[in-house]
């Protein structure tokens, strides 16, 4: 791996609870930061932040979020 290479971080997002999903999002962000810091590459983990912006569950529909377009 060379400096400035783009690396996609793949880790679980789904969990039985919203707290579990939040924990998985935090883990993904941690992994991206760790890889970036150790290797100097550009690590991305979209699932560490995109769920904050996408409407994915009926519990969240009352809040202001962008619609995901997925039939959940």
Strand order of the largest sheet: 1-2
Distance between the termini: 38 Å
Helical content stands at 25-40%
Q: Secondary-structure element order, as H and E?
A: EHEEE
- Identify low-pLDDT runs: none
Structural class by helix and strand composition:
alpha/beta
In DSSP terms (H or I, runs of 4 or more residues), the helix count works out at 1
What global shape is seen? elongated
Query: What's the gyration radius in Å?
Result: 14 Å
Work out the strand percent.
5-15%
Compute the number of strand runs. Answer: 4
Q: Overall pLDDT, averaged? A: 80
| Biggest beta-sheet profile | 2 strands, parallel
Describe this structure in words.
- By secondary structure, the chain is an alpha/beta fold.
- 31% of the residues lie in helices and 14% in strands.
- It is built from 1 helix and 4 strands, in the order βαβββ.
- The strands form 2 sheets. Strands 1-2 form a two-stranded parallel ribbon.
- Helix 1 (18-39) links the parallel strand 1 and strand 2.
């Amino acid at each position: 791996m060379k400096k400035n290479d783009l690396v996609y971080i793949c880790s679980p997002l789904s969990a039985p609870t919203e707290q579990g999903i939040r924990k998985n999002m935090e883990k993904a962000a941690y992994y991206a930061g760790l890889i970036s810091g150790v290797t100097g590459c550009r690590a991305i983990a979209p699932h560490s932040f995109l769920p904050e912006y996408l409407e994915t569950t009926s519990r969240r529909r009352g809040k202001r979020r962008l619609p995901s377009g997925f039939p959940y």
